[in-house]
Amino acid sequence: MAVAADPRACSVARTLDIVGEKWALLAVREVFLGNRRFDEMTRRIGAPRDTLAARLRSLVSAGILERRQYCDHPARYEYRLTQAGLELYPVILTLMRWGDKYLASDDGPPMVLEHSCGHRLLAAVVCEACGKPADAGTARPVTPAARP
Amino acid sequence: MAVAADPRACSVARTLDIVGEKWALLAVREVFLGNRRFDEMTRRIGAPRDTLAARLRSLVSAGILERRQYCDHPARYEYRLTQAGLELYPVILTLMRWGDKYLASDDGPPMVLEHSCGHRLLAAVVCEACGKPADAGTARPVTPAARP
DNA sequence: CGAGTGCGTCCAATTTTCGGACTAATGAGG
DNA sequence: CCTCATTAGTCCGAAAATTGGACGCACTCG
């Protein structure tokens, strides 16, 4: 039998290497909320400027944000979401939903996604076939069969 | 006008205070995969034993995991998901899906969720009313109206 | 007895984070 | 002209967290 699998190489771990840190995801949240500028972000997030600057650099180099000049003379930059960044929405939404449910939320969701039909959008776990939302009860984790 | 809102109090930030760190979420992933024991976790996750021990303690005190004795004499403990922990599944799933899509995944998803009907479960953004999955195009972020 | 398993703790060295001060370029107000 | 405010960072020293490896203890198995 093979030796015990060393650190699992998995998509969750790889993703967390990039965004698995408080400030990173909060920076992405801020951009979603429309605050694309460094100063505003530090204020709304509460992160040390130093740390946020480092985080933004790594998010840019990971292709999640794009640093774009919006003013010439006192060259100023802002951050925008790339396609990859936009698709982090479900991650942020699921985190928010969990927090809304389990952590006293005296202020409610900081943001709401609206469907074209005008209703709220939620991040849910749904069945590929039925399309129906699944409760924890109806779900069953399946570990990929061990290779022979 | 009020002074610029200090660090936003939001569910995303509160949630990340607890699980917003690589090892924490990876520990939860391992328990989902059925590895409830300390030693096995350190091996599969690749975290320093010290750090993992600290993370497990904080996950327990946050009510996400439960530390339970499974052997008397050489008192041994294992970790199990509470209800709150179980409901982190969507978070892990969305992270996994993002990683599958954007980070070269030479090994595929490390786990699959199965619906009671036998099909795969996916994390999707769906409309609260229609229940239909929404593409990025049909979604529009709405910032809560600024209070007067 | 000696080795192995399981769940941690302890430690010293390194790395990160923190928060406040500081810079540089520009515009606004008096 | 002089000063203050804005914006996007950088620099710094102190404090905290992380790391990896060694160690401890309570067993069991052969």
Secondary structure layout plus pairing:
The structure is a homodimer of 148-residue chains.
Chain A lengths: L10 H9 L2 H11 L5 H8 L3 H13 L3 E7 L4 E6 L1 H4 L2 H14 L9 E4 L4 E8 L11 E4 L6
Chain A binds a DNA duplex (30 and 30 nucleotides) through α3 and α4.
Structure, briefly:
The structure is a homodimer of 148-residue chains. Chain A has helices at residues 11-19, 22-32, 38-45, 49-61, 83-86, 89-102, and strands at 65-71, 76-81, 112-115, 120-127, 139-142.
Task: Kindly describe this structure.
The structure is a homodimer of 148-residue chains. Chain A has six helices and five strands. The first copy, chain A, has helices spanning 11-19, 22-32, 38-45, 49-61, 83-86, 89-102, and strands at residues 65-71, 76-81, 112-115, 120-127, 139-142. Chain A has a two-stranded antiparallel sheet. The radius of gyration of chain A is 19 Å and the shape is globular. At the A-B interface, helix 1, helix 2, helix 3, helix 6 and strand 3 of A face helix 1, helix 2, helix 3, helix 5 and helix 6 of B. Chain A binds a DNA duplex (30 and 30 nucleotides) through helix 3 and helix 4.
